[in-house]
Description:
Layout lengths: L14 H8 L39 H11 L17 H7 L8 H12 L1 H11 L25
Helix pairs in contact: 4-5
Amino acid sequence: MDNIAYCGINCDACSFKVSCEDKDSRHLQFLPKKYENCKSADVTAITPCPGCKHDRTCGDCPLKDCITAKNRSREVSLHNCSGCEEFPCALLLSLAHDGIPHHLDAVKNLESIRANGIQAFLERERSKWSCPKCRKELSWYLAACPDCNGMAE
Length: 153
């Protein structure tokens, strides 16, 4: 679990991604209304998305475009927005307040990465998105384990 998008969102906790990887549509039951058309997806027939840094499955991303452009002119590449001198910028704040629940974590996640480093953040995320009882992978919109009812942190 180290698939952190440029905006700081953990792609490995994406309900659609986990559902496709696990072939378990229960992760899709509680998706927000915006993703209503995904709830009935045949997860057994879909190749899991590799994450925002590798694909545009979720659509165009101005943050990805911004970092890609900035990385062309830098000696050391940015891996996410936490290392940007403009953090938090208007693009990031717009994403964090666009009404999509999992986007609310973007700035907080990046602040954690900035303050504690990526490794500490990844450790916290692994724990946060794993069932404390059976260690099954959980996701943004399935915080209670469907197998044993363990709850995400």
